[in-house]
Amino acid sequence: MKKSVRYILNGLTLPVFVVDPNRKISFINKSAKMRYTEAYSGQLFSELISSKKCIDALETVLNGEPNATANVILQEVVPTSFRVSLSRLDADSEPLPSCVLSFEDVSHIQEAEQMRHDFVANVSHELRSPLTALSGFVETLQGNAANDKEARERFLEMMSNEADRMARLIGDLLSLSKLQASERVAPTEQVDLFKILSSVSSSLSGLAERNSIKLKLNFSNFMPLVTGNADELTQVFQNLIENAIKYSGNGSVVSVSFKPPKEGKSHLCISIEDTGEGIDPTQIPRLTERFYRVDKGRSRAQGGTGLGLAIVKHILIRHRGWLKISSQLGKGSIFAVYLPIFAEKKLSQATPA
Ligand SMILES: Nc1ncnc2c1ncn2[C@@H]1O[C@H](COP(=O)(O)OP(=O)(O)OP(=O)(O)O)[C@@H](O)[C@H]1O
Ligand SMILES: [Mg+2]
Fold it and tell me: In angstroms, rounded to a whole number, what is the distance separating the alpha carbons of residues 35 and 29?
Protein backbone atom coordinates (compact mmCIF):
# COMPACT_ATOMS: atom_id res chain seq x y z
CA MET A 1 0.00 0.00 0.00
CA LYS A 2 1.27 3.45 -0.93
CA LYS A 3 2.81 5.53 1.86
CA SER A 4 0.36 8.39 1.23
CA VAL A 5 -2.62 6.02 1.65
CA ARG A 6 -1.20 4.67 4.91
CA TYR A 7 -0.73 8.25 6.06
CA ILE A 8 -4.38 9.08 5.37
CA LEU A 9 -5.71 5.88 7.01
CA ASN A 10 -3.56 6.52 10.09
CA GLY A 11 -5.10 9.98 10.36
CA LEU A 12 -8.64 8.56 10.68
CA THR A 13 -10.20 8.29 14.12
CA LEU A 14 -12.09 5.13 13.12
CA PRO A 15 -10.29 1.80 13.52
CA VAL A 16 -9.45 0.51 10.01
CA PHE A 17 -8.09 -2.87 8.85
CA VAL A 18 -7.13 -4.09 5.39
CA VAL A 19 -7.60 -7.84 4.87
CA ASP A 20 -5.86 -9.55 1.92
CA PRO A 21 -7.28 -12.30 -0.36
CA ASN A 22 -5.86 -14.93 2.07
CA ARG A 23 -8.08 -13.49 4.85
CA LYS A 24 -4.99 -12.16 6.63
CA ILE A 25 -4.61 -8.66 8.03
CA SER A 26 -2.25 -6.66 5.81
CA PHE A 27 -2.70 -3.23 7.41
CA ILE A 28 -3.86 -1.90 10.81
CA ASN A 29 -4.27 1.86 11.23
CA LYS A 30 -3.20 3.72 14.40
CA SER A 31 -6.67 3.88 15.87
CA ALA A 32 -7.19 0.11 15.39
CA LYS A 33 -3.79 -0.59 16.99
CA MET A 34 -4.82 1.41 20.05
CA ARG A 35 -8.13 -0.40 20.36
CA TYR A 36 -6.97 -3.91 19.42
CA THR A 37 -3.49 -4.09 20.92
CA GLU A 38 -3.28 -7.84 20.25
CA ALA A 39 -3.77 -7.43 16.45
CA TYR A 40 -0.75 -7.89 14.14
CA SER A 41 -0.04 -7.89 10.40
CA GLY A 42 -0.20 -11.40 8.94
CA GLN A 43 -2.80 -12.56 11.52
CA LEU A 44 -5.92 -14.30 10.23
CA PHE A 45 -8.69 -11.70 10.57
CA SER A 46 -11.12 -14.26 11.98
CA GLU A 47 -8.68 -14.94 14.85
CA LEU A 48 -9.02 -11.33 15.92
CA ILE A 49 -12.74 -10.83 15.23
CA SER A 50 -14.78 -13.98 15.11
CA SER A 51 -18.24 -12.41 14.80
CA LYS A 52 -20.08 -14.48 12.18
CA LYS A 53 -21.87 -11.45 10.73
CA CYS A 54 -18.56 -9.66 10.21
CA ILE A 55 -16.86 -12.71 8.64
CA ASP A 56 -19.84 -13.31 6.33
CA ALA A 57 -19.70 -9.66 5.18
CA LEU A 58 -15.94 -10.00 4.61
CA GLU A 59 -16.50 -13.10 2.46
CA THR A 60 -19.13 -11.25 0.38
CA VAL A 61 -16.67 -8.48 -0.42
CA LEU A 62 -13.64 -10.74 -1.04
CA ASN A 63 -15.86 -12.72 -3.42
CA GLY A 64 -16.52 -9.67 -5.56
CA GLU A 65 -19.24 -7.42 -4.01
CA PRO A 66 -18.12 -3.76 -3.92
CA ASN A 67 -19.51 -3.01 -0.41
CA ALA A 68 -21.12 -4.57 2.64
CA THR A 69 -22.06 -3.56 6.18
CA ALA A 70 -22.49 -5.54 9.37
CA ASN A 71 -23.90 -4.53 12.76
CA VAL A 72 -22.03 -6.45 15.41
CA ILE A 73 -21.58 -6.47 19.18
CA LEU A 74 -17.97 -7.06 20.17
CA GLN A 75 -16.86 -7.97 23.67
CA GLU A 76 -14.48 -5.20 24.65
CA VAL A 77 -14.19 -4.02 28.27
CA VAL A 78 -17.99 -4.00 28.03
CA PRO A 79 -20.03 -5.33 25.08
CA THR A 80 -19.87 -2.58 22.43
CA SER A 81 -22.01 -2.13 19.30
CA PHE A 82 -20.21 -1.43 16.03
CA ARG A 83 -21.33 -0.72 12.52
CA VAL A 84 -18.67 -2.28 10.30
CA SER A 85 -18.37 -0.89 6.75
CA LEU A 86 -16.51 -3.06 4.26
CA SER A 87 -15.32 -2.05 0.78
CA ARG A 88 -13.53 -3.96 -1.96
CA LEU A 89 -10.01 -2.78 -2.70
CA ASP A 90 -8.76 -3.58 -6.20
CA ALA A 91 -5.04 -3.12 -6.72
CA ASP A 92 -3.59 -3.25 -10.27
CA SER A 93 -0.71 -5.45 -9.09
CA GLU A 94 -3.00 -8.04 -7.36
CA PRO A 95 -5.24 -10.49 -9.25
CA LEU A 96 -7.67 -10.82 -6.31
CA PRO A 97 -9.30 -8.01 -4.30
CA SER A 98 -8.54 -7.12 -0.68
CA CYS A 99 -11.06 -5.60 1.71
CA VAL A 100 -10.99 -2.41 3.85
CA LEU A 101 -12.98 -2.62 7.07
CA SER A 102 -13.78 0.37 9.28
CA PHE A 103 -15.39 0.05 12.71
CA GLU A 104 -17.78 2.76 13.93
CA ASP A 105 -18.75 2.61 17.61
CA VAL A 106 -22.54 3.15 17.59
CA SER A 107 -23.23 2.41 21.28
CA HIS A 108 -24.16 6.04 21.97
CA ILE A 109 -26.74 5.99 19.14
CA GLN A 110 -28.25 2.81 20.56
CA GLU A 111 -28.28 4.27 24.07
CA ALA A 112 -30.09 7.39 22.78
CA GLU A 113 -32.55 5.16 20.94
CA GLN A 114 -33.13 3.15 24.13
CA MET A 115 -33.68 6.37 26.13
CA ARG A 116 -36.19 7.61 23.55
CA HIS A 117 -37.97 4.28 23.70
CA ASP A 118 -38.09 4.32 27.55
CA PHE A 119 -39.29 7.91 27.52
CA VAL A 120 -42.19 7.19 25.17
CA ALA A 121 -43.10 4.10 27.21
CA ASN A 122 -43.03 6.14 30.45
CA VAL A 123 -45.12 9.00 29.05
CA SER A 124 -47.71 6.61 27.63
CA HIS A 125 -47.91 4.76 30.93
CA GLU A 126 -48.21 7.96 32.98
CA LEU A 127 -50.96 9.30 30.70
CA ARG A 128 -52.81 6.02 30.51
CA SER A 129 -53.25 5.66 34.30
CA PRO A 130 -55.36 8.81 34.83
CA LEU A 131 -57.18 8.16 31.55
CA THR A 132 -58.15 4.63 32.68
CA ALA A 133 -59.35 6.07 36.00
CA LEU A 134 -61.39 8.73 34.17
CA SER A 135 -63.06 6.17 31.87
CA GLY A 136 -63.89 4.04 34.93
CA PHE A 137 -65.56 6.98 36.67
CA VAL A 138 -67.52 7.92 33.54
CA GLU A 139 -68.79 4.35 33.27
CA THR A 140 -69.85 4.33 36.93
CA LEU A 141 -71.59 7.68 36.55
CA GLN A 142 -73.47 6.39 33.54
CA GLY A 143 -74.48 3.29 35.47
CA ASN A 144 -75.43 2.77 39.10
CA ALA A 145 -74.19 6.17 40.41
CA ALA A 146 -76.35 8.15 37.97
CA ASN A 147 -79.05 8.87 40.54
CA ASP A 148 -76.90 9.04 43.67
CA LYS A 149 -76.11 12.72 44.27
CA GLU A 150 -73.45 12.07 46.92
CA ALA A 151 -71.62 9.45 44.85
CA ARG A 152 -71.83 11.70 41.80
CA GLU A 153 -70.13 14.56 43.59
CA ARG A 154 -67.43 12.29 44.97
CA PHE A 155 -66.71 10.82 41.54
CA LEU A 156 -66.69 14.22 39.86
CA GLU A 157 -64.10 15.42 42.36
CA MET A 158 -61.92 12.37 41.69
CA MET A 159 -62.32 12.92 37.95
CA SER A 160 -61.26 16.51 38.33
CA ASN A 161 -58.13 15.35 40.25
CA GLU A 162 -57.22 12.90 37.51
CA ALA A 163 -57.74 15.55 34.82
CA ASP A 164 -55.50 17.93 36.83
CA ARG A 165 -52.83 15.23 36.97
CA MET A 166 -52.88 14.82 33.21
CA ALA A 167 -52.71 18.58 32.72
CA ARG A 168 -49.76 18.79 35.16
CA LEU A 169 -47.93 16.00 33.38
CA ILE A 170 -48.38 17.64 29.98
CA GLY A 171 -47.37 21.03 31.40
CA ASP A 172 -44.22 19.52 32.95
CA LEU A 173 -43.28 17.73 29.71
CA LEU A 174 -43.67 20.98 27.76
CA SER A 175 -41.58 22.83 30.38
CA LEU A 176 -38.83 20.24 30.07
CA SER A 177 -38.70 20.31 26.31
CA LYS A 178 -38.68 24.14 26.25
CA LEU A 179 -35.87 24.18 28.82
CA GLN A 180 -33.79 21.68 26.89
CA ALA A 181 -34.22 23.76 23.74
CA SER A 182 -33.09 26.97 25.50
CA GLU A 183 -30.33 25.49 27.67
CA ARG A 184 -27.49 27.10 25.70
CA VAL A 185 -28.70 30.62 26.44
CA ALA A 186 -28.29 31.61 30.10
CA PRO A 187 -30.80 34.10 31.54
CA THR A 188 -29.38 37.55 32.23
CA GLU A 189 -31.95 39.36 34.44
CA GLN A 190 -31.34 40.34 38.08
CA VAL A 191 -33.49 38.28 40.41
CA ASP A 192 -34.42 39.00 44.01
CA LEU A 193 -34.41 35.59 45.72
CA PHE A 194 -35.93 37.03 48.89
CA LYS A 195 -39.15 37.83 47.00
CA ILE A 196 -39.22 34.42 45.35
CA LEU A 197 -38.51 32.41 48.51
CA SER A 198 -41.04 34.43 50.52
CA SER A 199 -43.79 33.98 47.97
CA VAL A 200 -43.11 30.25 47.43
CA SER A 201 -42.95 29.63 51.19
CA SER A 202 -46.21 31.44 51.84
CA SER A 203 -47.96 29.61 49.00
CA LEU A 204 -46.83 26.29 50.53
CA SER A 205 -47.58 27.17 54.15
CA GLY A 206 -51.07 25.61 53.85
CA LEU A 207 -49.62 22.31 52.61
CA ALA A 208 -47.05 22.39 55.44
CA GLU A 209 -49.80 22.96 58.00
CA ARG A 210 -51.93 20.13 56.63
CA ASN A 211 -48.89 17.82 56.93
CA SER A 212 -48.01 19.13 60.44
CA ILE A 213 -44.66 20.36 59.16
CA LYS A 214 -42.84 23.30 60.68
CA LEU A 215 -41.49 25.53 57.91
CA LYS A 216 -38.42 27.47 59.13
CA LEU A 217 -37.24 30.38 56.99
CA ASN A 218 -33.60 31.35 57.58
CA PHE A 219 -33.15 34.12 55.05
CA SER A 220 -33.60 37.85 54.93
CA ASN A 221 -33.76 40.54 52.27
CA PHE A 222 -30.00 41.12 52.63
CA MET A 223 -29.20 38.38 50.15
CA PRO A 224 -27.25 39.32 47.02
CA LEU A 225 -29.23 39.42 43.79
CA VAL A 226 -28.68 36.50 41.44
CA THR A 227 -28.58 36.30 37.67
CA GLY A 228 -31.57 34.32 36.47
CA ASN A 229 -35.16 34.08 35.46
CA ALA A 230 -37.72 34.68 38.21
CA ASP A 231 -40.38 32.26 36.90
CA GLU A 232 -37.93 29.41 36.46
CA LEU A 233 -36.35 29.94 39.89
CA THR A 234 -39.85 30.01 41.42
CA GLN A 235 -40.39 26.58 39.81
CA VAL A 236 -37.11 25.31 41.34
CA PHE A 237 -37.95 26.33 44.91
CA GLN A 238 -41.61 25.41 44.56
CA ASN A 239 -40.64 21.82 43.71
CA LEU A 240 -37.86 21.47 46.28
CA ILE A 241 -39.85 22.90 49.20
CA GLU A 242 -42.96 20.97 48.17
CA ASN A 243 -40.90 17.74 47.98
CA ALA A 244 -39.44 18.37 51.43
CA ILE A 245 -42.95 18.82 52.81
CA LYS A 246 -44.52 15.91 50.87
CA TYR A 247 -41.86 13.31 51.52
CA SER A 248 -40.74 13.97 55.06
CA GLY A 249 -43.77 12.92 57.07
CA ASN A 250 -45.80 14.45 59.89
CA GLY A 251 -43.97 16.41 62.54
CA SER A 252 -40.80 17.06 60.51
CA VAL A 253 -39.06 20.38 60.21
CA VAL A 254 -38.28 21.89 56.81
CA SER A 255 -35.72 24.72 56.78
CA VAL A 256 -35.07 27.04 53.86
CA SER A 257 -31.72 28.76 54.45
CA PHE A 258 -29.44 31.21 52.71
CA LYS A 259 -25.72 30.34 52.94
CA PRO A 260 -23.57 33.40 52.17
CA PRO A 261 -20.90 32.73 49.53
CA LYS A 262 -17.35 32.18 50.70
CA GLU A 263 -14.86 34.98 49.98
CA GLY A 264 -14.24 35.29 46.23
CA LYS A 265 -16.91 32.73 45.24
CA SER A 266 -19.28 33.60 42.42
CA HIS A 267 -22.24 31.43 43.55
CA LEU A 268 -24.51 31.64 46.56
CA CYS A 269 -26.37 28.71 48.07
CA ILE A 270 -29.97 28.22 49.17
CA SER A 271 -30.51 24.96 51.00
CA ILE A 272 -33.76 23.13 51.64
CA GLU A 273 -33.28 20.78 54.52
CA ASP A 274 -35.78 18.34 56.00
CA THR A 275 -35.78 16.00 58.96
CA GLY A 276 -37.75 13.30 57.12
CA GLU A 277 -36.90 9.70 56.38
CA GLY A 278 -34.06 10.50 53.98
CA ILE A 279 -33.10 8.80 50.72
CA ASP A 280 -30.97 5.70 50.18
CA PRO A 281 -27.56 6.97 48.87
CA THR A 282 -27.72 4.56 45.90
CA GLN A 283 -30.90 6.31 44.68
CA ILE A 284 -29.49 9.85 44.85
CA PRO A 285 -27.74 9.92 41.42
CA ARG A 286 -30.99 8.82 39.73
CA LEU A 287 -33.35 11.34 41.40
CA THR A 288 -33.03 13.94 38.63
CA GLU A 289 -33.88 11.42 35.87
CA ARG A 290 -37.24 11.98 34.22
CA PHE A 291 -39.99 9.94 35.93
CA TYR A 292 -37.65 8.50 38.57
CA ARG A 293 -39.36 8.13 41.94
CA VAL A 294 -38.05 6.30 44.97
CA ASP A 295 -41.52 5.18 45.94
CA LYS A 296 -43.79 5.35 42.88
CA GLY A 297 -47.00 4.63 44.76
CA ARG A 298 -46.36 7.31 47.35
CA SER A 299 -45.36 9.93 44.78
CA ARG A 300 -48.43 9.16 42.65
CA ALA A 301 -50.70 9.30 45.68
CA GLN A 302 -49.33 12.81 46.30
CA GLY A 303 -50.16 13.77 42.69
CA GLY A 304 -46.48 13.69 41.59
CA THR A 305 -45.34 13.05 38.04
CA GLY A 306 -41.66 12.37 38.80
CA LEU A 307 -40.58 15.23 36.55
CA GLY A 308 -40.01 17.86 39.25
CA LEU A 309 -36.31 17.25 39.92
CA ALA A 310 -35.56 16.76 36.19
CA ILE A 311 -37.03 20.24 35.60
CA VAL A 312 -34.99 21.63 38.53
CA LYS A 313 -31.81 20.15 37.08
CA HIS A 314 -32.38 21.62 33.62
CA ILE A 315 -33.31 25.05 34.99
CA LEU A 316 -30.10 25.09 37.02
CA ILE A 317 -28.01 23.97 34.04
CA ARG A 318 -29.47 26.89 32.06
CA HIS A 319 -28.65 29.21 34.97
CA ARG A 320 -25.06 27.91 35.08
CA GLY A 321 -25.77 26.75 38.61
CA TRP A 322 -26.11 23.28 40.11
CA LEU A 323 -27.95 21.10 42.64
CA LYS A 324 -26.22 19.13 45.37
CA ILE A 325 -28.22 16.42 47.13
CA SER A 326 -27.11 14.87 50.39
CA SER A 327 -29.18 12.59 52.56
CA GLN A 328 -29.00 10.13 55.41
CA LEU A 329 -31.58 7.43 55.84
CA GLY A 330 -33.65 8.09 58.93
CA LYS A 331 -32.23 11.59 59.40
CA GLY A 332 -33.33 13.69 56.45
CA SER A 333 -32.16 15.30 53.24
CA ILE A 334 -30.52 18.50 52.06
CA PHE A 335 -31.12 19.87 48.57
CA ALA A 336 -28.61 22.71 48.04
CA VAL A 337 -29.13 25.05 45.08
CA TYR A 338 -26.12 27.05 43.84
CA LEU A 339 -26.83 30.14 41.74
CA PRO A 340 -24.56 32.78 40.17
CA ILE A 341 -24.50 36.11 42.01
CA PHE A 342 -25.51 39.00 39.80
CA ALA A 343 -22.50 41.03 38.70
CA GLU A 344 -22.78 44.30 36.79
CA LYS A 345 -21.17 43.81 33.37
CA LYS A 346 -18.09 46.01 33.00
CA LEU A 347 -18.03 47.95 29.76
CA SER A 348 -15.22 46.51 27.70
CA GLN A 349 -14.81 49.69 25.64
CA ALA A 350 -14.65 53.27 26.84
CA THR A 351 -17.82 55.18 26.04
CA PRO A 352 -17.12 57.67 23.28
CA ALA A 353 -17.03 61.29 24.46
N1 LIG B 1 -36.98 15.72 50.38
C2 LIG B 1 -37.14 14.47 49.95
N3 LIG B 1 -37.13 13.42 50.84
C4 LIG B 1 -37.28 12.15 50.41
N5 LIG B 1 -37.47 11.81 49.12
C6 LIG B 1 -37.49 12.80 48.20
C7 LIG B 1 -37.33 14.18 48.56
N8 LIG B 1 -37.37 14.91 47.42
C9 LIG B 1 -37.56 14.06 46.41
N10 LIG B 1 -37.64 12.79 46.87
C11 LIG B 1 -37.80 11.56 46.04
O12 LIG B 1 -37.42 11.91 44.71
C13 LIG B 1 -38.47 11.55 43.80
C14 LIG B 1 -38.43 12.50 42.61
O15 LIG B 1 -38.85 13.81 42.97
P16 LIG B 1 -39.52 14.74 41.87
O17 LIG B 1 -39.73 16.06 42.47
O18 LIG B 1 -38.71 14.64 40.63
O19 LIG B 1 -40.88 14.00 41.52
P20 LIG B 1 -42.27 13.96 42.32
O21 LIG B 1 -42.22 14.86 43.51
O22 LIG B 1 -42.56 12.52 42.56
O23 LIG B 1 -43.28 14.51 41.26
P24 LIG B 1 -43.48 16.05 40.81
O25 LIG B 1 -42.37 16.86 41.38
O26 LIG B 1 -43.43 15.97 39.33
O27 LIG B 1 -44.80 16.43 41.33
C28 LIG B 1 -39.74 11.62 44.61
O29 LIG B 1 -40.75 10.80 44.07
C30 LIG B 1 -39.26 11.10 45.97
O31 LIG B 1 -39.24 9.68 45.94
MG1 LIG C 1 -41.57 16.92 43.20
Answer: 10
